Amino acid sequence: MSGHDNSEHGELGHIVPFKVYLAVCISLMVLTVITVVVAETVDVGSWNIVVAMLIASVKASLVALFFMHLKFEDPITWLYAGFPIVLLFLLMGGIFLDNPTRMEVKPVEVVDTLKAKE
Amino acid sequence: MSSSNEATVSGPPHAHHWDPVTAYHGSKLGMWLFLATEILLFGVLFTAFAIFRYLYMEEFHHASQYLDWKMGAINTAVLIFSSFTAVLGVDAAQHGDNKKTFRWLCVTVACGFIFLIVKYLEYSHKAHIGLFPFIECNDHAQFCWDSVEFKNEFKMYFGLYYCMTMLHALHVIIGMGILTWALLKAKKNRYSTDYYTPVEMGALYWHLVDLIWIYLFPLLYLVD
Question: CB B211 to CB A15 under 8 A?
């Protein structure tokens, strides 16, 4: 492990010490266990999905920042990594503003509704 | 315009190869742009899942109980560990160690195999109990996909489940292909501290595959 101990600039990419990778790996495993335990034991109703997605986002950030070296990248790489997330939030935000306004229309159930009328 | 720019750059104006640093950074930026399109590709599926989960909350909760969270958890651990070994492969390449790069990438590809085997076991179990489209109904199965009793909401849940996990599995297979190509180059001692682009790009792709599974696992297997 000698030579791994200090964070340094490689000739091309950023060289990260082994112990950082190990710590990230262990954190990801621990967070996975937490996700499972929380989902199986704690019941906070509709907040379950929020908690699960928050933990997943922490895990995803760890993967992106350290395993994918995003922490050491330049602003334009951050822009490339960030814009699809902004677009996704726009898409989901728009849909979730729109959906509650017409809850009666359930596309898949249309067939069943017709049957019930017969 | 271009000739005046080229005049300021050292080296021949029409060189066939860029210098290693420029080539490396160009490849990496291109890779990130590609990964952005991948996030959008899976993003619309996640959005579709969110819409129908919102509309059919109870049915989705019921349907999700037919997934075995233990299998999903094993696969999550396998993919996280494989991401770890992939990044160790990159680290070895950054230190110019072809042998270690080869070994770590072999472990990563092996993890990919384990993931696919677990996924196969899950799918075949679903097919066995009749929770799979295009399978003819039989008396032994618990469910019959094409019967009237089989609720449309269930079809929606499992349809999305199969679309998302199969597209993800396809990415695992492609990732294994890229990493195999990268590790064969390591076997031939092709990498040095100023060239290891295939390892880095293969690993970036692999990490994205892991990252998508990190969201898929709780969403499909755990959330009620």
Answer: no
CB pair distance less than 8 Å for A112 and B224: no
B83 to A67: CB separation less than 8 angstroms, yes or no: yes
Please state the CATH superfamily assignment of the domain spanning residues B20-222 in this structure. Answer: Cytochrome c oxidase, subunit III, four-helix bundle (1.20.120.80)
What pTM did the predictor assign?
Answer: 0.87
CB atoms within 10 A of CB B131: 25
Evaluated on CA atoms B152, B153, B156, B162, the torsion sign reads negative
* Full pLDDT tens readout for chain B, 224 residues: 444 444 444 445 555 667 888 889 999 999 999 999 999 999 999 999 998 988 888 889 889 999 999 999 999 999 999 999 999 999 999 999 999 999 999 999 999 999 999 999 999 999 988 888 888 787 778 888 888 778 888 899 999 999 999 999 999 999 999 999 999 999 999 999 989 999 999 999 999 999 999 999 999 998 76
Copy the structure tokens of residue B185. Answer: 């180059």
Domain shared by A63 and A84, yes or no: no
Strand spans (E) along A2-118: 8-9, 14-15
Chain A partners within 8 Å of B78 (Cβ): none
Task: Say how far residue A6 (Cα) sits from the centre of its chain.
Answer: 29
| ipTM above 0.85 for this complex | yes
Q: Among candidates B200, B168, B179, B203, which has minimal Cα distance to B110?
A: B179
Are residues B160 and B154 in contact, defined by beta-carbon separation less than 8 angstroms? no
A25, B84: Cβ pair inside 8 Å?
Answer: yes
Q: How many domains does chain A have?
A: 2
User: Residue A56 belongs to what domain range?
Assistant: 1-73
Mutation to test the A interface, candidates B83, B153, B154, B217, most A Cβ within 10 Å? B83
Give the nearest chain A residue to B43 (CA atoms).
A88
